[in-house]
Amino acid sequence: QDLGTLGGTYSEAQAISADGAAVAGYAYLDGNSSHHAFRWTDAGGMQDLGTLGGTYSLATAISADGSVVAGVARNASGNDRAFIWRGQMLDLVNTQTAMVQTAADLAAAGAQQLGAIGGLANAEIGAPGSELTVHGSSMGTMPARLQVALRLGAAVIAGDAPGTQRFAELGAAVGLGPRFTLGGSLALGNGSSNLESIAFDGRLTSAALYLRSRAPEGRGLTWKLAAAWGGGTVDVLRPNLLPNTEAGHGLADLQSRALLAEIGWDKPTTGGRITPYLRLAHASTTRGGYTEAGDIDFPVTYAEQQLDLTTATLGLAGEHRLSARDLLRYDVGVEIDLSRSTGQIIATSDAGDFAFDAPAAANTARLAAAIGVSHRVGANGTLTADLGVAQSAYGGRPATTLRLGYEMRF
After folding, report:
1. Among 128, 163, 170, 402, which is most buried by a count of CB atoms within 10 Å?
2. CB-based contact 399:390 (threshold 8 Å)
3. How many domains is the chain partitioned into structurally?
4. Which pTM does this prediction carry?
């Protein structure tokens, strides 16, 4: 059967599908000045597959079902490149390179979730000012009878990856006599991150519950137990940064969990107190598997990724009365990795399959510091502002947290 040409005088078949319904090859254009790759079917005839911006292309292979064509094409720079086609001609090397970069960045982003979404959960239960200090000076010492405190607040976290997390929080605490405080919090917000070859954007939710014990006289053993959960759905975007590639995106579930145990010793000082402490924490994050969607010829499927981190923090927390209404709070510590498991990124596509280890932590011991101010408003209200800075585990810029809140006692 004569398959025809693309306007010239010559064409040549190079490959045929398993059922014989599709043929790939090359054919000359009008004037025989150049030739282009073609795909032929009985229904569609000879289809010009174009080039990568250069002057010619040549198809040399076709998939068993006839939907994918591969070959060589010249790009706009005059270089010959392998191509892959399914609806549009893509540079195969650039496409695979983009997928490699995306998989590597996805591994890095997943590891950073232990310090981002997992850190968000930890911040709800561990950072100065996030705990409703029913026994602390910011709320006033609670008497033996049951009392309740509420906290409304907002926070912004900027991590070592370009991007931020912004959320509003509602917390409540109950003073259970002179020694114990039972509290919890709920935070709703949005998180975004822009790495070299991916971008995250999604809504996040976190919740925390804690139990704190302090000596009524302000001197002696103090301890805290806490648990937190955070999660949401994020849209992961893979942009087409390289020439002759395509963009893709997919929705992935993120779930984080954290457990925390802390023990310290309260020591009164002139106008305040200091508390050296040891904190043990375990956080885990799971990014669900997903397949890219939308108008994309070669979608990538990413398998689920599981990350786990156990740390110990040695620190010193304190508070100092500045005036009858103002209180200064601070916390300085060193967080040390006891164990870190970041899993693999596994990606599959008709354009190639990949598996990558998440990057190793550059800093297994990290400094963190926070400072906050509380200002009493009226008889039962307190305004709070807290700023925290923590060294990155991956050698990037420090993670910075800013919190503003208003506490009410009933």
Report:
1. 128
2. yes
3. 2
4. 0.81
